[in-house]
Amino acid sequence: MNPTKKAFLLDVLKVTPKTKLFGTGDDSVQATTAFKQYRKEEEALIAQIKTLDEFSGSDAEAEKQVAVFEAGVKTALAHTETAKKGDPQDVKAKVEEALKMLQATKAKLDTAVPVAKARQQFNKTANHTRLLLEKLKMTSTSGKAVETDIAYTKGANIELNKKRATADDFNDGATKLQKLKNDLKGGGLKKMIEEVDKTVAAEEKEQAAFEARRSEFQKHLTILDATERGSETVVSFRTILQNASQSAREHKYSEATAALTAKLKDLEEATRISKSAKGDQDKQVVKQPDYERRLPKIIVRMENLKQVPGSGQKVREFQGELTKAASMAKASNFLEAYKTLDPLKDKIDKTIKELNEAFSKATKTIKDPSVPEVEAEIEKLRAQVRVNSGRCSPYRRDGS
Length: 400
What we know:
It is a single chain. This protein is mostly helical. Among the domains are: 1-137, no CATH class; 307-391, no CATH class. The protein is 82% helix and 0% strand. The protein has twelve helices and no strands. The longest helix is centred in the last third of the chain and has 54 residues, at 253-306. The protein is elongated. The two termini are 41 Å apart.
């Protein structure tokens, strides 16, 4: 699970996301647009890799290809991070280069998926063929069946040993093996074929159960890998999946399914904990730039407040809140730091306005007043406000 577009642009590339309804916009708008296109392509590519991964349970070649394509996605993402931080033009350039990397990976993946699909079908037919060949070795034949046996064995071995690379190659092989089977059935060996068909049907049922469990296991592992890629926990669960897949390729489907089932609950719990932690982390990442933008504005207002007569008590009060927010930010708790910092803006503005009004009123009643005299008058006004406040309901008219 990659960070959101906003979080990645802000936290990693240090560019503020901007959009424009018409035209190309400024550098930040163009960088944002380029990254949106990159992320759209990335998400589509990841979905396509998942489609290929559906074949990897019983196909070692597909499993290797999935690893290669996933590495391609990671390499493209890493390339975006080489952009000069805070430079929209360089971010745009690097993101566009990364997009071309993804497109190159997609071109290879577009070929790999149909080949994997055709190879899977061929492998099923080939497995059926090998079982028939083993059965023929243990079956006594006579008459026409002998000729059929010889023809089938010769033709099947040719097709099984032929090297194949393209989807057409695998589809052609599956078609020829099926034709050989049909010829075998017509050669008086129908009963033997039916026995093998029953064996294959039972095995395919076990295979389907394994594939369903493998798909469920892979789904949780993908989420876990996105939130804590490369961790010992991820490596441990991936090893379990790889070992189960190897057992499945050896047609030990029940054993493979049992191995995944035994660890599925542990994987689900690890994924739940990791997702929760990642969600909190993403919120912190998104709020950090907001906190960093707001902080200088609050500091300026605090300096303005210090210049206002009678502000000492409020300055100390607000400084306490400011220090509290800074401590939270230091601990990387930007979400709470921002919540503490944000209300200070309005509080300080309101205090400055009230003190200035009080100062203005005081100067009208004191001839050539000194600062201490003004502060004394302000204190009288505050005392009067506290008295009046005590007589009023603590609730405002709006009920809050």
